[in-house]
UniProtKB/TrEMBL annotation:
The lineage of its organism: Eukaryota, Viridiplantae, Streptophyta, Embryophyta, Tracheophyta. It comes from Vitis vinifera (Grape). Keywords: Transferase, Ubl conjugation pathway. This is HECT-type E3 ubiquitin transferase. Residues 812-824 have a biased composition (Low complexity). GO terms for biological process: proteasome-mediated ubiquitin-dependent protein catabolic process; protein polyubiquitination.
Length: 1524
């Protein structure tokens, strides 16, 4: 084999984008876009050394000119909106230009034909000796074909060329002739598609297959694959008969990934028209295809196997013997069963690999239908009957994963497909095998959950499974069907009146929208589920409209099951209940009665002991050995009773006044303490799980069974571009709603505006629509100022919002734009965001912003308008009315659709969808939604009654906690939300489950508070004598236990929908649950939702997360890749000044910032990450007066950080208190401190927006206060100052003991001896009323407050706590939030926890796991995983300490921390290549390209030498970017 046969490296186009960015090379696109054969002229040994841009590369340059494909995509985007622009050319000019073009093409075609004749003569007459002449002719032919058009060729010309090219393709002695001839064949098929048939007649396919079966030259083989792929499109049968399938698969592992895709595409093309009688040639390739299914890129292969299994029993047998079920199980396991694993890729937007797998599984099993191919069905049945072991293995692999997919929130079609396969498995399995198959699965509970679906096709399959199980294993499943509620569900189908008596729901549904206008593109979307997984390719569209189910099929089958298997006793409401259910019902009723009793008398304290005993018994039952089914758990009513107990009867009250909250607040706290103490302690010594974990698991199963949140999908394969007249008049990338605005008949104060049908942006709020319409219909024609919009965009004041406030739907009557257009259209200036509705109508006439360095138009903070107008339904009714702000926030118009007033918190799209959901429409027809004209009736709104802010505050339950920071946890007063989720049935169990889950999540979050309070109380009462016993060991309950995988998958489905261009394009429940119960959704899903809500779809797409199997979010560096970029020149000597200048110019702009250092050549990702790291380090300098320091830290820690001038704060950064009476301290101006906090907020927000990793060790308390907007208490102080927090809690314990003894004894002198702090009187501590560590900060003035005594200790503690977490830092926190809000609203981050925020902003705290290094590092260009230098490097890295690892990471990537997800999420992947040294390798140093995470390592002679050079490079090589 010659040197051509050596395996070639991956083509340049496969290198990471940033790696290509380092090179200034551009590759000219050819007519064959992915032809590896054409890249052979480029140096195959092109090493990254030749691509260096120094320490880093020019990422910016490549972003605008990396490849032709990027430019072509931009051109397509531009042309997509051409319909919005007028054409200035006159018709005469157009005709003239067309005539010129036609004449040019005619002359060019005649010239090409002459060239073809000349080349044909040369090739025909040339003999075998004239090699150079043949090569010259073939080269010229390839050049002509590269640029000619179809009109230049004719069938006669091609027919003449075909035999000559086939002849030279078989040339054995000269590989160059073969290569050029096959390339000419490829080009010919490209230019003249009809040439495939002519070439096939002359034997081109066997010739190409012959070259592939015995590969001598790799470039020739790659070109053969390209040619076969072209020919297989039009001549699949000829390819099949010539053995092309085996030929292209024979050496597929030998080729690069790009060429492998070409080979697979060829197989798919052949299989598309595979005749059932011609499967023999295909059978030889089945093992290879099964092996290829294990690869990540399997698109199209599964469909080929589906066709094969549908038409051949031999194929079915072969697939079973090849253990196909194990492979398909692995594919299905990626269907987001775990909320951390990204879902499978969508194929063409309408059908995913899961559907293809389900089709294959369906095809492998016989069908019950006998109207198609009876013999085929009988043959499959006979095969499975004779091979029960194969069916058993198949079931063991597939059944559990199918049940998991259905339970995870699969859409209706996937659910139906899974159930169809389960039904077949149950039907064709023998009784003994079936019992073994179902032994490890809870099929009864699974079926009970299926019966909550409303779709008849799903119900009929569930009933068929129930009937089969009862026929084969009646004794086994009768009891479990009772326990799990299956029999009750079947009975409820026949007697709906019983449905109302059950707490467990028997019907629910998943709405599924089918766009009839897209039906030609979405071939897999059927009108009836009967045909969803039908492998009959000849069913007509009219047949698919007719359902195969009879009208009363569900009723009849349910009646048959009840008559045959359900006795009268079994259906009796009392006798049919299990013992455990009756026992739980008894406790539930007793607990409810006790709560009611305590509400109506003043002896509630007397009931506490009864509460404790009853709760203990309930927890013992729930945590006991006897299993409790989901049906029993819900039906017992125990959830509602617990909720009623925890809320002290306040739950579900319409209004809760201040008096109500005040009178019940203490009881609520006591009950949380009691209940929390029981749940957070092990009920049995040998028990592994805490009762809290057990209860959470039961609630999660219950929620998954009863929730009824609809998934509404558009299933449009491609979005239409349209023009939205309302509200702003601009092009959008999604369909618009057609709306006619009609004045209400009795309305006399407004004009009628019903002449025209207007196009409305579906994701605009009703406030935005009002802004457009008001100036059209208002008789007074006044232009009021939109103060609410201005207030929501005021970035100069504090924005303190409770944890339940997740933002407003928006009060923007003048600005609304789809986020997807943020980079296509110029944004308004910030001033224009406060314009009147009149100015809003002329937005499209505004001047574009300044041009960026990449030549694109600058976009000015699209989220400034989006945050206000597109966050539909997120604002809950937990805050004061808008009038409380003191602004003129009156509503001017009320809107009605079909007689129902629309909720102003919704977008137009959500309002229509919500109305259809409430009308219980089974399937929402998308075509009708966009096609019909919606009539919106409007009338003038009545002026609202003004409410004073003080009044609102008094009526708010939050007022009970204002100014109190000592002990109260803010959570308790925030759980009583009058309205949780608007579309829920308040009497249903979902409401109760959500409330209890929220209570338990708060209990888990504040468990340290609760347990500390209990210990303090015990000390006060004398049950604990030693202050050391106040310490608590907090049990760990992972936050992911609160994640509901089913709801997470539903949200993922909704966000994958093409219409999810904003959160206003999703059903209302998505926004409401995310606002109130974010813990229900996985971290990955919340990250996607956050980016969609805050930045729009351009930055919400996780480009690489679909291939990330680590369960962690993918690297955020490329999320902003579609936005324009702005390069900024900074000076290393003045980092903070440069950062301030950068943020002043660009903080409010939606552009990606990239850094270039003054007098350095490097630019791009690496320098930018290093800039943010340097800024973070500057913010931690001691002389800024920003942070409090820990003066109790260890000497080694203090000396290490003091040497670098950094603040010593082992527990994380927290603001230093500043007195309001001091403007200067130690030469530091407080005004400068607030400016630094504003800048810090801007930097943090911009880094998050651009996807940059920060190196800022904020404390958990800072995240909680400054970003989440939650109040702190004395228990939070320990998280950032452990010593101060501990002392304050001990002081508080002394105060509580004093108060308790005063209450009990009544005389002060009797307990003086107990009032010592660690055997020392308070007076002897010589504490004064100044802040510890800050003697200039005086807590209070006056002669009575010079020294701390036992008398004023309570006041001292109160002032100290207030100063530390409130009064002394409020202005700094306010400044930070104001700076942050200039980039995007900080409220979008309230869906995360403190730990998640740290991960989101600062990446992974731990650098990497040593055992996973090999899995996440790529070795190339001379190195493999087994190369001695690589082995040495990995050992050295594992020996590094923490600081050395940080330095190594910063040297290679530009940042000392890894992104969320660690090394697995690093993008581009960390790559290590061999560095070719001009002299002695040991004398050279490692070098890097940080833009591509690329380490060039010399092959050092020893491990010691490598470690020496590496440490020198990572320590001395920091701080500059130059040529390497």
């Amino acid at each position: 084999m010659g040197n051509r046969g050596q395996k070639r490296p991956e083509s340049v186009e496969e290198l990471p984008a940033d790696k290509r960015a380092c090179s200034s090379l551009e590759f000219r696109p050819s007519s064959s876009s992915n032809s590896p054969g054409q890249t052979h002229t480029n140096s195959p040994n092109l090493a990254p050394e030749s691509q260096d841009g120094g320490h880093d590369g020019g990422e910016m340059d490549t972003s605008s000119s990396a490849s032709g494909s990027v430019r072509s995509e931009e051109a397509e985007k531009d042309s997509a909106y051409g319909s919005c622009d007028s054409d200035d050319l006159a018709d005469g000019e157009l005709r003239f230009n067309r005539d010129i073009l036609r004449d040019f093409q005619r002359r060019r075609s005649s010239g090409d034909q002459a060239k073809f004749k000349k080349i044909l003569v040369t090739l025909t007459e040339a003999d075998e000796v004239d090699v150079s002449g043949v090569l010259a002719a073939l080269t010229e032919l390839c050049e002509v074909l590269s640029f000619c058009t179809e009109s230049s060729l004719s069938s006669l010309t091609v027919d003449s060329l075909a035999p000559v090219l086939v002849k030279h393709a078989k040339h054995e002695s000269n590989p160059d002739i073969m290569l050029l001839a096959i390339r000419a064949i490829t080009y010919l098929c490209d230019v003249f598609p009809r040439s495939s048939g002519l070439l096939s007649r002359h034997g081109v396919v066997p010739a190409l297959c012959e070259r592939l079966m015995a590969i001598e030259y790799l470039d020739v083989a790659e070109q053969c694959l390209q040619a076969l792929e072209k020919i297989s499109r039009d001549q699949p049968l000829a390819c099949l008969q010539s053995g092309a399938i085996m030929a292209v698969l024979n050496y597929i592992d030998f080729f690069s990934t790009t060429v492998q895709r070409v080979a697979l595409s060829t197989v798919v093309n052949i299989c598309k028209k595979l005749p059932s009688e011609c499967t023999a040639p295909f059978m030889l390739a089945v093992p290879s295809l099964c092996n290829l299914l294990q690869y990540e890129d399997r698109q199209g292969l599964i469909g080929s196997l589906v066709k094969l299994a549908s038409g051949s029993v031999v194929a079915v047998r072969t697939l079973f013997e090849l253990n196909i079920s194990s492979i398909l199980k692995d594919i299905l396991s990626t269907y987001d069963l775990s909320h951390g694993i990204p879902s499978v890729n969508m194929v063409d937007g309408h059908c995913n690999q899961v559907c293809e797998v389900l089709k294959l599984l369906n095809a492998l099993l016989p069908t019950s239908a006998r109207d198609q191919d009876v013999q085929m069905v009988l043959d499959k049945e006979s095969f499975l009957a004779n091979q029960p072991d194969l069916l058993q293995k198949f079931g063991n692999d597939i059944l559990p994963i199918l049940m998991q997919v259905v339970s995870s929130g699969a859409n209706l079609y996937v659910c139906y497909g899974c159930l169809s396969i389960i039904n077949k498995l149950v039907y064709f399995s023998k009784s003994d095998n079936l019992l073994e198959l179902l032994n490890n699965t809870n099929i009864s509970s699974f079926l009970a959950g299926v019966f909550t679906r409303k779709e008849h096709h799903v119900l009929i399959i569930a009933l068929q499974i129930v009937e089969t199980l009862l026929q084969k294993l009646s004794d086994t499943f009768s009891n479990s069907f009772i326990k799990e509620g299956v029999f009750f569900a079947v009975d409820a189908l026949l007697t709906p009146e019983k449905c109302s008596q059950l707490k467990f729901p028997v019907l629910s549904g998943t709405h599924f929208s089918i766009d009839s206008n897209q039906r030609h593109a979405a071939k897999e979307v059927f009108r009836c589920l009967c045909y969803a997984f039908d492998n009959d390719q000849f069913s007509s569209a009219s047949e698919m409209e007719n359902c195969k189910l009879e009208k009363d099929s569900v009723h009849n089958l349910a009646k048959h099951i009840r008559t045959k298997y359900l006795t009268t006793e079994l259906l009796n409401s009392e006798k049919g209940l299990t013992d455990i259910l009756q026992k739980l019902r008894t406790f539930s009723a007793a607990l409810t009665d006790l709560v009611d009793m305590s509400l109506h008398d003043d002896t509630s304290a007397q009931h506490e002991e009864k509460y404790y005993c009853m709760l203990h018994q309930i927890i013992t039952i729930l945590n006991g050995k006897e299993p409790i089914s989901t049906f029993e758990f819900i039906e017992s009513g125990i959830v509602k009773s617990l909720v009623n107990y925890l809320s002290n009867g306040l739950y579900m009250r319409e209004k809760v006044g201040s008096q109500g909250v005040s009178s019940h607040y203490d009881n609520v706290e006591k009950r949380f303490e009691v209940f929390g103490g029981l749940l957070l302690s092990l009920s049995e010594p040998l028990s592994e799980d805490l009762p809290l974990s057990v209860l959470i698991q039961k609630l999660q199963h219950a929620l998954s069974s009863v929730e009824n949140f609809p998934v509404i999908l558009s299933h449009a394969s491609k979005q239409r571009n349209s023009f939205a007249t309302v509200p702003n008049g601009r092009c959008v990338s999604h369909p618009c709603l057609k709306v006619r605005f009609t004045k209400e008949e009795v309305e006399t104060s407004l004009y009628d505006y019903s002449e025209d049908v207007l196009t409305v942006d579906p994701f605009s709020s009703l406030d935005a629509i009002e802004g457009f319409l008001w100036r059209k219909v208002s008789i007074k024609r006044t232009e009021p100022t939109n103060s609410v919009f201005q207030a929501s965009h005021d970035m100069k004041g504090p924005i303190f919002q409770g944890p339940l406030d997740a933002g407003s739907q928006g009060k923007s009557p003048d600005l609304m734009e789809s986020e997807s257009m943020s980079s296509e259209f110029p944004e308004e200036d910030k001033d224009s965001s406060q314009s009147t509705p009149e100015s809003a109508s002329n937005l499209r006439e505004m001047t574009p912003g300044e041009a960026t360095s990449s030549g694109e138009t600058q976009t000015v903070s699209a989220e400034q308008e989006q945050h206000v107008s597109s966050e539909a339904g997120v604002k809950m009714k937990t805050q004061c009315p808008e009038s409380c702000s003191g602004e003129d926030a009156s509503v001017k118009l009320l809107f009605y659709l079909e007689g129902q007033q629309l909720n102003r918190e919704l977008t137009m799209y959500q309002a229509i969808i919500q109305q259809q959901i409430e009308a219980e429409h089974e399937i929402i027809p998308s075509g009708k939604l966009w096609g019909q004209v919606h009539t919106l009736t409007y009338r003038a709104a009545v002026e609202p009654k003004q409410t004073h802010p003080q009044e609102c505050l008094q009526n708010s339950p939050v007022s009970a906690k204002v100014g109190t920071h000592l002990q109260q946890a803010p959570f308790f007063s925030n759980i009583f939300v009058p309205e949780l989720v608007a579309e829920l049935d308040k009497s249903g169990p979902t409401y109760d489950i959500l409330f209890l889950l929220k209570s338990l999540e708060g209990m888990n979050k504040f468990k340290f508070h609760l347990m500390s309070r209990e210990r303090t109380k015990a000390f006060a009462e004398g049950r604990i004598d030693n202050l050391d016993n106040l310490k608590v060991a907090v049990p760990v309950i992972p936050e992911n236990e609160f994640v509901n995988s089913k709801l997470t998958e539903k949200l993922e489905q909704q966000m994958r929908d093409p219409l999810a261009v904003s959160i206003g394009g999703m059903p209302l429940w998505c926004n409401q649950l995310m606002a109130l119960y974010p813990f229900l959704f996985g971290f990955e899903a919340r990250c996607k939702y956050f980016r969609l809500a805050a930045f729009g779809p351009l930055q919400a797409q996780p480009h690489s997360s679909f291939h990330n199997t680590s369960g962690a979010p993918s690297d955020r560096r490329h999320n902003a890749g579609s936005l324009p970029r702005k390069k900024f020149l900074v000076c290393r000597d003045r980092i903070l000044d440069s950062a301030a200048q950068m943020m002043n110019l660009h903080a409010c702009q939606k552009v990606v910032l990239e850094v270039e250092y003054n007098e350095e050549v490097g630019t791009g990702l690496g320098p930018t990450l290093e800039f943010y790291t340097l800024v973070c380090h500057e913010f931690q300098k001691t002389g800024l007066g920003m942070w409090r320091e820990d003066y109790t830290s260890s000497t080694s820690c203090k000396s290490l950080q003091a040497g670098s001038g950094m603040v010593v704060s082992p527990s994380g950064l927290f603001p230093r208190p500043w007195s309001s009476t001091l403007s200067t301290s130690n030469g530091i101006e407080f005004s400068d401190v607030t400016k630094q906090f504003v800048l810090l907020g801007q930097v943090v927000a911009k880094a998050l927006q651009d996807g940059r990793v920060l190196d800022l060790p904020f404390s958990k308390a800072f995240y909680k206060l400054a970003i989440l907007g939650q109040e702190l208490s004395v228990y939070d102080i320990q998280s950032f100052d452990p010593e101060l927090g501990r002392v304050l809690l001990e002081f508080q314990a002394l105060i509580d003991r004093k108060r308790y003894l005063e209450t009990v004894c009544g005389e002060k002198s009797t307990f003086d001896v107990d009032m010592c702090f660690r055997n020392t009187k308070i007076e002897d501590l010589y504490l004064d009323f100044t802040l510890p560590g800050y003697p200039e900060y005086v807590l209070t003035s006056g002669s009575d407050h010079k020294m701390v005594t036992m008398t004023n200790l309570e006041e001292y503690v109160s002032l100290l706590v207030d100063t530390t977490i409130n009064a002394g830092i409020s202005r700094q926190v306010e400044a930070f939030r104001s700076g942050f809000n200039q980039v995007f609203p900080i409220k979008h981050l309230q869906i995360f926890t403190e730990e998640e925020l740290e991960k989101l902003l600062c990446g992974e705290r731990d650098s990497w796991a040593c055992n996973g290094l090999l899995d996440h590092i790529k070795f190339d260009h001379g190195y493999t995983a087994s190369s001695p230098p690589i082995i040495n490097l990995l050992e050295i890295v594992q020996e590094f300490d923490h600081e050395q690892r940080r330095a190594f990471l910063q040297f290679v990537t530009g940042a000392p921390r890894l992104p969320p997800g660690g090394l697995a999420s690093l993008n581009p992947k960390l790559t290590i290549v061999r560095k070719h040294c001009s002299k002695w390798a040991d004398a050279d140093l490692p070098s890097v390209m940080t833009c591509a995470n690329y380490l060039k390592l010399p092959p050092y002679s020893s491990k010691e030498r490598m470690k020496e050079k590496l440490l020198y490079a990572i320590t001395e090589g920091q701080g500059s970017f130059h040529l390497s």
